[in-house]
Amino acid sequence: MKLTISIPRGARVLLLDDDDVRIKWFLERLISIAIAKEAPDAIAILDSYPPFDFVFLDHDLGLFTGNEGDGLQVAQHLARRGFDGHNTVIHSTNAAGAAAMKDALKSATVAPFGQFEIETAAREQKEITFPSSTYKV
Question: Whole-structure pTM over 0.90, yes or no?
Fold first, then answer.
């Protein structure tokens, strides 16, 4: 049985993932989404914008971009800022990595990619591009 995540219209969402197939999956379901493929980009987005309503974090990064960093760095950054992981989904299929991220973000939900679905309403999207990330509003 899959977990269903309901995201209200207009919710601000951050996705950290470097897999284009997964990114496409999220874009087909979400209205307003900031996408980071690398940990430093996710941290920069988190530090530059108002808080996000939902956060989706993958652990293993660099497989598709060839760069260093992982989702644990982002989880630890959020924890240092006092964020406990409310409305955060750790969607990594790396169980050990997901567990480490959950240790940093106690209120986060661990649901490996493919074991959850997202429900939301659709609306027109605008796109703002960062060096290796995209922000859709």
Answer: no
